[in-house]
């Protein structure tokens, strides 16, 4: 299992445009990427903060997600809307 968390700070004037694109990206990732097992889109008390929680089979599956034409188009479409972005990667620890 490979987990990814992303915390976005979205420019306030862009949040209404960003959210539909983000939800479409999550939905399509789940539908078209068999090794994407979970893709949650969350918002906190600050409506301009968006938190993603993604689960992939392994790092290779996540790398395929990042390299896809669909993700590249999404990333380009939202880049000007994002004030900041923090990504963290986690690998399952087994005994």
Largest sheet, order of strands side by side? 2-3-1-4
Task: Note poorly predicted spans.
Answer: none
How many strands in all? 4
Q: Sum up the overall morphology in one term.
A: globular
Number of domains: 1
In percent, how helical is the residue content? 25-40%
User: What is the first-to-last residue Cα distance?
Assistant: 14 Å
Described by strand count, sense and barrel closure, the largest sheet is: 4 strands, antiparallel
Strand residue percentage: 35-45%
Count of individual helical segments = 3
- The CATH class name reads Alpha Beta
Rounded mean pLDDT score? 97
- Helix/strand structural class: alpha+beta
Order of H and E elements: EHEEHHE
- Annotated CATH topology: Alpha-Beta Plaits
CATH level-two architecture: 2-Layer Sandwich
Radius of gyration: 13 Å
Keywords: Monooxygenase, Oxidoreductase
GO cellular component, one term: cytosol
Protein name: Quinol monooxygenase YgiN
GO molecular function, one term: monooxygenase activity
Description:
The chain has 95 residues and is of the alpha+beta class. It has one domain: 2-Layer Sandwich (Alpha-Beta Plaits). The chain has three helices and four strands; from the N terminus they run βαββααβ. A hairpin with a 5-residue loop joins strand 2 and strand 3. Helix 1 packs antiparallel against helix 3. The protein is globular, with a radius of gyration of 13 Å. InterPro entries: ABM_dom (IPR007138), AI-2_Isomerase_LsrG (IPR050744), Dimeric_a/b-barrel (IPR011008). GO terms for molecular function: monooxygenase activity. Pfam families: ABM. Keywords: Monooxygenase, Oxidoreductase.
């Amino acid at each position: 299992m490979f987990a990814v968390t992303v915390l976005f700070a979205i420019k306030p004037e862009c949040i209404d445009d960003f959210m539909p694109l983000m939800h479409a990206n999550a939905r399509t990732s789940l539908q078209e990427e068999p090794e994407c097992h979970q893709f949650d889109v969350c918002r906190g008390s600050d409506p301009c903060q968006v938190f993603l929680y993604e689960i992939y089979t392994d790092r290779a599956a996540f790398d395929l997600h990042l390299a896809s034409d669909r993700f590249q188009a999404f990333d380009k479409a939202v880049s000007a809307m994002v004030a900041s972005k923090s990504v963290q990667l986690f690998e399952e620890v087994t005994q």
